[in-house]
Amino acid sequence: MKQFGIVLTALLISGLSFAQLEVSLSTGYAVGSAGMKLGESINLSETENSYGSYGEGANVQLRGTYYFNESFGVDLGLGYLHGTDQTVSEVNVPNREVDAVARARAFGASTSIVYKFTNNIYGRFGALLKLGGKTEAVVYDKSVLSQAEADAFGIPLGSYSETNYKEDFHGHFPLGFVGALGYKFNLNDNLNLFVEAEYYGISLKRKDSEITEFNTDVVLPDGTVAFAGFYNIDNLPNDYNKETTYVDNLSNSNTDSSRKLSQKVPYSSFGINFGITYKFKSSSKK
After folding, report:
1. How far is CA 235 from CA 139, 189, 240, 260, 263, in A?
2. Separation CA 106–CA 59 (nearest Å)
3. Is 14 helix (H, G, I), strand (E, B) or coil?
4. Which burial class, exposed, middle or buried, applies to 66 when counting CB atoms under 10 A from its CB (0-12, 13-18, 19+)?
5. What pTM, to 2 d.p., does this model score?
């Protein structure tokens, strides 16, 4: 503890004689890291697990870095993740077809310690926080009606229901880790280009979800829509809940289908970013 205080005091003193601010804008793409099971793919011959991370996708970041001296600084970043589709359910069997994917649309922030190894090579590590956004599920479900169901509608056998809906999942605010190693290309005294490898280590515990769009059409074998909007967002089927709450404990006697056990979903990733940095003129006090 005493050593930490000495280091902190040294940084503050050096910051009085050296102060430099940089602002950077970057974009990049990340692939999933430490992927977990997100769903299954089912056909007549087999069932296959689908693994991934909702952290996979394109991102944009805006960061500000304040240097106390030639080597050490602190970094504050804001970012947006436009995640790629992750398979949640894929079913291809007679009389049933399901294609369900989910993707991240998330805003986050990070705060890091930055260290310059040389004038061009730097590293940063710190804390990562998800500020807002959602994991959006997009579902298509086609189910061929049974003889009894077709008779009830007064339509021929081979008719089917076709359902499309979207459900937004939200989570508790998580805390994760961010680390990066980068290289700067000096253009002039104020502008730099940079490339960096970045790792995010974070997972999100689900809090609630909400169905935001829902439509079911009843379709004849030739593709003609017999009953448009048979179910909709204001008239959901009995086995769907517009809102669901996720909890850590459920009674064995629970009958409320709008309450489910929570789970953690992965957002960890490893990516490459490219960007530009504007360096303000350093100031000093004598």
Report:
1. 17, 63, 10, 22, 28
2. 10
3. helix
4. middle
5. 0.85
Other C-beta atoms within 10 Å of 238: how many? 6
Q: pLDDT 10s digit of each residue in the chain, 286 long?
A: 455 455 444 544 444 455 789 999 999 999 998 789 999 999 999 999 999 999 999 999 999 999 999 899 999 999 999 999 999 999 999 999 999 999 999 999 999 999 999 999 999 999 999 888 999 999 999 999 999 999 999 999 999 999 999 999 999 988 999 999 999 999 998 999 999 999 999 999 999 999 999 999 999 999 999 999 999 999 999 999 999 999 999 999 999 999 999 999 999 999 999 999 999 876 554 4
DSSP state of 235: B
Q: Residues with Cβ < 8 Å from 147, sequence gap 6 or more?
A: 157
Separation of alpha carbons 46 and 36, rounded Å: 20
Tokens in use for 2?
Answer: 């005493």
The values of phi and psi at residue 214, to 5°, are: -155, 135
* Rounded (to 5) percent helix, strand, coil in the chain: 10, 65, 25
Q: How far does CA 130 lie from the centroid of its chain?
A: 9
What amino acid is encoded at 264 in this protein? K
CB atoms near residue 250 (< 10 Å): 13
Residue 24 neighbours by CB under 8 Å, 6+ apart:
61, 62, 63, 64, 65, 194, 275, 276, 277, 278
- Provide the β-strand partners of residue 239: none
Radius of gyration for the chain, computed over Cα atoms and rounded to the nearest angstrom: 26
Q: Which residues pair with residue 175 across a beta bridge?
A: 129
CA distance 105 to 35: 18
How far out from the chain centre does Cα 129 lie? 12
Longest CA–CA span in the chain (Å) reads 91
Buried residues in 119-153 as b, exposed as e (16+ CB within 10 A): eeebebbbebebeebbbbbbbebbbbbeeebbeee
Give dist(CA 220, CA 278) in Å, integer. Answer: 61
